[in-house]
Amino acid sequence: MTDQLVASRSRVHDVDALRGFALLGIFIVNITFMASGYPGNLVTDPAFTSTLDDVVRGLSEVFVEMKFYPLFSFLFGYSFTLQMDSAAAARTAFEPRMLRRIGGLFVLGVLHIVFLYAGDVLTTYAVACLVLFWMRRVSDRTALCVAAILYGLVVASLLLATAFMDASALLPTTAEAQANAERATQAMLGGWGEIIGEHLDGLGLLVLQALTLQGPTALAMFLLGLVAGRRKLLTHVHGDEPILRRIQLIGFPTGLAGSILFAIGGGTGHTLPVAISVATAPLLTAAYVATLLRVMHSARTSFIRSALAPAGRIALTNYLAQSAIGLVIFTSKGFAAAGTFSPLATMSTALLVFTLQLVVSALWLRWFRYGPAEWTLRWITNAHRPTWRKTPSEPLNQP
């Protein structure tokens, strides 16, 4: 019972709501890779080249792509401090608990890659979290300096690659990429062997991306979240803080300018646009966060926090469920719709699925303390089976 009280008191509902918001952006990006083999091979599906298709892809590049991964990573670092506080309040040893948690997260990530979706972040997060665990006692100044250095190195490496490397020599030709994309799409319509084989074929690229881009940027955001969590910056937000308006005034114009250059430059297939996006996307992400915090703490729109928080509270379950739903919709294990969804249909599906997740998450938490994935990870973390169902004396849900 003590563990339940500690967990309840340590929840920060703004963090849950922001995590729910991040889930939406991540799914809008991920579902495009689940729906077809073309995005993963950096080519456009020739079946969807209309003006509307281009507009939808452009909107995603400007407003969504590379904007929500930093937020998810920042919140991971912030939640790391809540885990530390929870362990201290419950008077339990933090180190073995967290190491078991990291190991459990890595195993879930591996299973996710093999059976559901090759574009997993859980394994990357688990490895980066080991570094965060090792650095958990560094000063705020050191954490911020390391974060800045990591992020600067990523941007610098992309700029150097733009200046001194011929990317075309490393990438397949357009015809080869088109053929690879068609093969990948057909593999999604095959048996389990073809589906798993396709997932594992992308493992080398996933590891390379984790080492050069996702891993360092995730760790940088973890460290920023660590500092923010120590200072409890999201604990007592009222929505009328002047800093939120200043973040909007800086973040929106700078971040959108970088996003537009990213879209014009060809998106993820070119190093210079990626460098620009990596450098400016966190500013747009921060503007999103500031805007959402202001909206959630307005009397007229506070319902948005109540809607988003349950999904963010069981974010791991929802993240894995999104991949499972994508598998059912697009592969032969379900409706076999791979290659048939236009960009608009894909984005609409993401919005619909996420809306359903909001509803299901709220209903689920009326009767259960954790989502299935959170319950499993908590079992691994604490080394004993947690109570899943709520007792009659507990509140059915929290805002």
Give the topology.
Layout: H1 2-10, H2 13-35, H3 51-63, H4 68-89, H5 94-115, H6 122-134, H7 140-164, H8 167-170, H9 174-188, H10 192-201, H11 203-230, H12 242-264, H13 271-296, H14 303-313, H15 315-330, H16 343-367, H17 372-382
Helix pairs in contact: 1-4, 2-4, 2-14, 2-15, 2-16, 3-12, 4-11, 5-6, 5-17, 6-11, 7-11, 7-13, 12-13, 14-16
Task: Describe this entry's structure for a reader.
With 399 residues, this protein is mainly alpha-helical. 74% of the residues lie in helices and 0% in strands. The chain contains 17 helices and no strands. The protein has helices spanning 2-10, 13-35, 51-63, 68-89, 94-115, 122-134, 140-164, 167-170, 174-188, 192-201, 203-230, 242-264, 271-296, 303-313, 315-330, 343-367, 372-382. α2 packs across α4 and α5 crosses α17.
Could you list the spans in which at least 5 consecutive residues all have pLDDT below 50?
1-10
Q: Which structural category fits the helices and strands?
A: mainly alpha
Number of strands: 0
- Binned, the helix content reads over 70%
Major beta sheet summary: none
Report the total helices.
17
